Amino acid sequence: MRRGSFQAGTVDYAAVGATQAPDLMGYPPKGTTPAEASWRLGSGESRFVTSTESLLGWGAQRGAGLQVTDVRPASGPMYSGVGFDADGNAVQPSRLDDEQRFDADGVPFASAGTTVHLRGRVGGMRADAELRVISVVDEPRRVGFSLGTVGGSVVSGEESFLLEWRDDDEVWFTVRAFDKPTGVLYRLWRPLVKRRRRALFQGYLQAMSPMYATGS
User: Fold this and answer.
1) What residues form the membrane-spanning segments (predicted)?
2) Where are the alpha helices (DSSP H) in 1-106?
């Protein structure tokens, strides 16, 4: 897999890009716990565009109760990013790298190589970690990105967020992840990893689904 000029050591795990593997759930990176979930967000181009703006503006993370701080886009030639097609094959860097975008508060949108700090509580459990955007998807009907842990988290691993405007006009949101415990408590009691992941997935759904946004 081509990873542009991605440098080893910039994330704290080896299986970079494994959330893109079709067989992730059956063959996750050694020692990790995989997870995957998809939700229908609605239908039509308007829903897709609105969801895209929310996702790239860290809406899933914020809606899950996490504070998004210290967002630092990549600079210079350190990391040009990598995109993926529908089959998980690496393609040319996304055009998201060509022009940095910002939300209404001036916070940079997710783009390849961006580093971000997330902190808060997830299902009553502490979340405090630095992560990096290690890949992007930017296609007319598919948009998303993958986040990898850099350090400080109670788990080590990767999660990917993907929006698809499918041929039947439905818009779907898919999250895939794999985690390995690094915190003492999580290493001693591994079910906490699954519990934490379930809480995160529920938070992402509530953040992105119009059903939760409208309270209906």
Assistant:
1) none
2) 45-56, 59-63
